[in-house]
Amino acid sequence: MRRLSLIAAVAALAACGPKEEPAADTSAAATPPPGISLSDVAGSWTARVMRQDSDSVILTYELTASADPTAWTITFPNRPPVAMRPMADGDSIIISAGPYESALRKGVQVSTNGVLRLVNGELVGTTTAHYSVKTADSVATFRTVATKKM
């Protein structure tokens, strides 16, 4: 009888204890963070270009962005606009342009590609320039920071 009383007491205590939570359903896919669209950055931007290892600005240009990818341009001072080819992918905008005459190397053709992300209201990223030269310095990588014009 004692044994039966002990079993009943243990069962009663177990019933009064905290209930186990059901295991979380891990079969559901996690929701990815929202991506960026070209319309999110539409407008005029002033871009500053710096070498990877420096904060000194070596070049500025105006970036015109639009929801329409065929309307994107970069305009260097005292030069006609250069068409860009943007593509939104996740949290990034992948950009390419050229060939066009380099703003840094007079008389040299350059093609550029890069990636921009919207960070604290600025477009920040890297750009790789491919110069049409036969020397070892045919490729250069730069940092870009663009601020939206009001």
What structural keywords apply?
about 150 residues, mainly beta, Lipocalin, 8-stranded antiparallel barrel, 1 helix
Description:
10% of the residues lie in helices and 47% in strands. With 150 residues, it is mainly β. Strands 1-2-3-4-5-6-7-8 form an eight-stranded antiparallel beta barrel. The chain is globular. The termini are far apart. The mean pLDDT is 87.
Note the overall shape.
Answer: globular
The end-to-end distance, rounded to whole angstroms, is: 87 Å
The low-confidence parts are none
**CATH level-four homologous superfamily name:** Quinohemoprotein amine dehydrogenase alpha subunit, domain 2
Mean pLDDT: 87
Global Rg = 29 Å
Per DSSP E runs of 2 or more residues, the count of β-strands stands at 8
CATH domain class name: Mainly Beta
In CATH, the topology is named: Lipocalin
SS strand fraction: over 45%
Q: Main β-sheet, in a few words?
A: 8 strands, antiparallel, barrel
Q: Secondary-structure element order, as H and E?
A: HEEEEEEEE
The helix fraction, in percent, is 10-25%
Total of domains: 1
Structural class: mainly beta
- Name the CATH architecture: Beta Barrel
The DSSP helix count reads 1
Q: In order across it, which strands form the biggest sheet?
A: 1-2-3-4-5-6-7-8
